[in-house]
Design brief:
Elements: E1 21-24, H1 29-39, E2 46-50, E3 53-57, H2 61-80, E4 86-87, E5 93-95, E6 99-101, E7 105-108, H3 112-115, E8 130-132, H4 142-149, E9 150-152, H5 153-160, H6 184-194, H7 201-204, E10 208-218, E11 221-231, H8 233-241, E12 251-258, H9 264-274, H10 281-285, H11 289-299, E13 308-310, E14 327-329, H12 330-341, H13 345-348, H14 352-359, H15 371-388, H16 400-412, H17 422-435, H18 438-456, H19 468-478
Parallel strand pairs: 10-12, 13-14
Antiparallel strand pairs: 1-3, 2-3, 2-6, 4-7, 5-6, 7-8, 9-12, 10-11
């Protein structure tokens, strides 16, 4: 009678030939941790653990050459860009109970200061910003990284589509920009989704950043509560509109951050993530609480005085009932308010950089009441209508922003209260009252031309409107 007697051998005693791999199925997380401890830090093998399967790999000698070359290139690029970093070499990264991987090299960039002096990772340490794995003998699959930063596109779409099959627009409220249909980058994203390269989409795309109030991980499932997509609006919409072209091989990079609803860090995270692609300063301004308050103020206005505040670019695209002439974006709002209340009409017409410099710390402040911003934009709307209807001589068009300032003084007086005061609200209400009556506002704007005529002294060249001298001349005539 014979019987098979199992022979047990310590994992640390296994001898693997270079280039070979051993796969061990049905390994629990506790066993994985024990094996890591047994193997120790000073070893030549690489490990990857995912969904209960453990792979132990012995790299070939030629595996080290491209790894070192790529690492050196990354270091050179970071130094050339004057970007600080903290290299960590090959390190084991783990998602408790789910997965563990060992890239060939990794770099901390955004969190480099937090990792200075660390020899070993702690449970609360962040993942690296860049991981390098050379594909000579490596068997690490996308599944191993899934718990640490990538997600099947089909799973992601479940987060952003409602029960009726529509994209949930409210999820992108904190994104700096709305979806831009006519965008070259978006066309390239779509082309990749539909091409044979869609399996490499995860390598090409900047990824999605989700900020949630609560994150709960149980096994290989993660639940997010009260979440917003703060970066990745363009990618999300392209995925949505190309849902039928997406298969199980298409993954996206994803970052999920747990933060309280009113955390100040939230806006910093949004700004940092959106700095990776060209973003105008006024688009980042859209993130502030004041901008959201201003947007709500515009929404509260009655239909006969309705304007639409475009806090985020293109947020009104394709929405019926929104006339383009009634849309006020952040840049236009800045010009109108600065011209009417901050003596910046000479910079409003062309010198945006000058306008931003001159109005820094004076505009869009948290203690400002929205009414001043609204009446300045409403005044510009009324004035533009006069030019469109040819009820105002076109020669005055270069002086529009100066006319806003003159209008304000002639209607409410030269003695303007502090913008943050309650008296300023009353001051603006006088302006709003005149603007609410089409005939009275027309009469008031026609009256401003007398001041322009005196200031130009027969020369209506638009260049004169952009000088401080012209602004001073107007102020002198208004005394």
């Amino acid at each position: 009678m014979t019987a098979a007697i199992p022979v047990f051998k310590a994992v640390s005693q296994m001898q693997l030939a270079p280039g070979s791999t051993v796969t061990i199925p049905d390994v629990s997380w506790e066993e994985f941790e024990s094996i890591l401890q047994e193997l120790g830090q000073k070893r030549t093998t690489r490990i990857a653990y995912s969904q209960g399967a453990l792979e132990i790999m012995a790299p070939l000698p030629e595996h080290e050459i491209p790894k070192d070359l790529i690492s050196d290139i990354v270091k050179i690029l970071l130094k050339a860009k004057d970007i600080r970093y903290q290299p960590f070499g090959s390190t084991t990264f783990k998602r408790q109970g789910v997965a563990g991987v060992e890239p060939d090299a990794c770099f901390y960039i955004q969190n480099y200061q937090q990792m200075i002096g660390h020899r070993r990772l702690q449970p609360d340490d962040p993942p690296p910003d860049l991981a390098i794995e050379t594909d000579v003998t490596s068997k690490t699959t996308l599944d191993a990284y899934e718990a640490i930063g990538i997600l099947p596109a089909r799973e992601y779409l479940k987060l952003i589509i409602d029960e009726s099959g529509n994209i949930i627009k409210g999820l992108f409220y904190d994104n700096v920009r709305d979806f831009d249909v006519d965008n070259e980058v978006n066309r390239e994203i779509e082309a990749t989704i539909k091409s044979d390269e869609h399996k490499s989409f995860v390598l090409y795309n900047n990824g999605i950043t989700i900020v949630a109030e609560d994150i709960n991980v149980v096994g290989d499932k993660m639940t997010v509560t009260d979440y917003q997509i703060v970066n990745g609006c363009q990618t999300s919409h392209v995925l949505y509109y190309n849902e039928k072209s997406i298969d199980d091989a298409l993954y996206i990079p994803i970052k999920i951050i747990a933060l309280a609803r009113d955390s100040r860090l939230k806006n910093n995270i949004i700004k940092a993530n959106n700095r990776q692609t060209p973003v105008k300063l006024e688009e980042l301004e859209a993130l502030t609480d004041f901008q959201k308050k201003l947007e709500e103020y515009y929404k509260s206005l009655p239909e006969d005085k309705q304007l639409f505040y475009e806090r985020r670019p293109r947020q009104f695209n394709g929405i019926q009932g929104v006339e383009k002439i009634r849309i006020v974006d952040i840049s236009s709002q800045m010009r109108c308010f600065a011209s009417m209340f901050l003596d910046q009409a000479h910079n409003a017409g062309r010198y945006r950089a000058n306008l931003q410099d001159e109005t820094r710390n004076k505009i869009f402040l948290s203690n400002h009441d929205p009414i001043g911003y609204y009446v300045s934009a409403y005044a510009k709307f009324r004035l533009d209508a006069l030019f469109r209807k040819k009820q105002m001589d076109g020669k005055y068009s270069p002086f529009k922003y100066h006319m806003l300032n003159i209008f304000r003084i002639q209607v409410s007086g030269n003695d303007m209260p502090a913008i943050y005061s309650n008296k300023f609200i009353k001051y603006c209400e006088k302006i709003e009252e005149i603007l609410s009556d089409e005939n009275k506002s027309k009469e008031a704007f026609l009256k401003t031309t007398a001041i322009i005529d005196r200031a130009v002294n027969g020369n209506y060249d638009r260049a004169s409107a952009k000088t401080v001298t012209f602004l001073r001349n107007i102020k002198d005539f208004l005394v």
